[in-house]
Design a protein that fits this description.
3 domains; nine-stranded mixed beta sheet; DNA polymerase, domain 1; globular; 373 residues; Arc Repressor Mutant, subunit A; 44% helix
Length: 373
């Protein structure tokens, strides 16, 4: 049995999770060894009781083979927390999923993601704003993450798709049970322009208890969470709570005081969430100016390929002009520019979000040609 097969099998034991898995791996060394372990040794691990032990012991190789074949039938990619392709933001949270099932593709640029979440029973105002913010943030280079639920989530995905940007949908069920069913075509479109992902085995139904787990992945993938509308007990508030625990920025769109779908967002603002009235409020939090389209001038500087891009600050232009289409080491840039490491890291993040510079392995920087943007 391969490591991938073993991790897929352990993920099928629903109550393990990454925290218990780490304890098991600390003791047994390899996931394959966990599946072969006798009951008494499994029971000796903190947090592994009789029920989880029985599930591990009852797991059969044919069950795992069936799961992997079914994923292949749906044209899904399965990655584990060990893989280099595992999303960087998600890997850093307290309890990242053991396994991700992916339809579509997760790219390195998806590190620059904003989650947009809210009520399933949203007002026309909320739906409109979800789409508008998704469109505008996508235009600025962000990937839009949401849960593909009815209401705000669906409009957030559609806003990104309308702009031609990337979007990621995180499901609270397995791929054998796309939920809500009316979003099947939307799921296909999202997969062609980003990814639909979940951590649940293929046959998992959309049970209520799955969605808080789904919400921690939405926030975990993102740099910040924008809550558009949320009632008193909305799942969007759970996503915001996870975001705060994970060190993410939380933004909230204010609503009418007598609207039940604004109770949650107005409450978040009272508790210190950033009040948002325009996209500039979000960009400001990340110290990013609005990116505007512009052409190179006809100066000698432009002809040499080192003209500052329109919409860049002076420091962004300085860093941008220090990089060419040939890889250059980040250490060389640090030596060349009279800026602190923290300042350069912040500027580099903004230029990556704007898709002007790419960071290669080995801390090499390269300018992205206009034709590839």
């Amino acid at each position: 049995m391969t490591r991938l097969e073993a991790l897929v099998g352990l993920n099928m034991v629903g109550d393990i999770g990454s925290i218990r898995l780490k304890k098991l791996l600390d003791y047994f060394g390899k996931p394959e060894s966990i599946l072969k372990a006798p009951a008494e040794k499994l029971m000796a691990i903190s947090g592994i009781g009789q029920q989880i032990t029985d599930q591990i012991r009852s797991l059969k190789k044919e069950d795992i083979d069936r799961e992997i074949k079914l994923a292949a039938k749906y044209n899904l990619k399965i990655i584990t927390i060990d893989d280099k392709d595992y999303p960087q933001n998600l890997r850093q949270i307290y309890d990242p999923p053991i396994v991700l099932y992916i339809k579509g593709e997760i790219k390195s640029e998806d590190r620059f993601s904003i989650a947009i979440v809210g009520s399933r029973r949203a007002s026309f105002y909320g739906l409109t704003k979800a789409g508008e913010f998704a469109y505008s943030l996508s235009e600025q280079g962000f990937t839009i993450v949401s849960g593909m639920a009815r209401g705000i989530d669906t409009y957030a995905h559609r806003g990104a798709l309308k702009q031609g940007g990337r979007t990621i949908a995180v499901m609270g069920s397995g791929f054998n049970h796309i939920y809500p069913p009316e979003n099947r075509e939307t799921a296909e479109e999202i997969a062609r322009n980003g990814a639909v992902i979940c951590e649940f085995p293929m046959d998992t139904e959309p049970f209520k208890q799955n969605f808080p787990r789904r919400n921690r992945v939405i926030s975990g993938l993102s740099l910040g969470i924008l809550v558009v509308e949320a009632a008193r007990n909305s799942g969007a508030l759970i996503t915001a709570d996870f975001g705060l625990e994970q060190g993410r920025e939380v933004f909230a769109l204010p609503g009418k005081v007598d609207s039940h779908t604004s109770f949650g967002t107005n409450g978040l603002i009272k508790q210190g969430a950033r009040l948002v009235s325009s996209i500039e409020d979000i960009l400001e939090e990340f110290n990013m100016p609005m990116s505007t389209a512009g052409r190179h001038s006809n100066s000698d500087e432009a002809k040499s390929g080192h003209a500052p891009k329109a919409g860049l600050t002076s420091e962004e232009a300085l860093l941008y002009n220090s990089v060419s289409e040939q890889p250059v080491a980040l250490d060389e840039i640090v030596e060349k520019l009279d800026l602190s490491i923290s300042s350069i890291s912040d500027i580099l993040l903004r230029l990556q979000i704007k898709k002007l510079i790419r960071q290669l392995p080995g801390k090499q920087l390269v300018r992205i040609p206009d034709a590839q943007r």
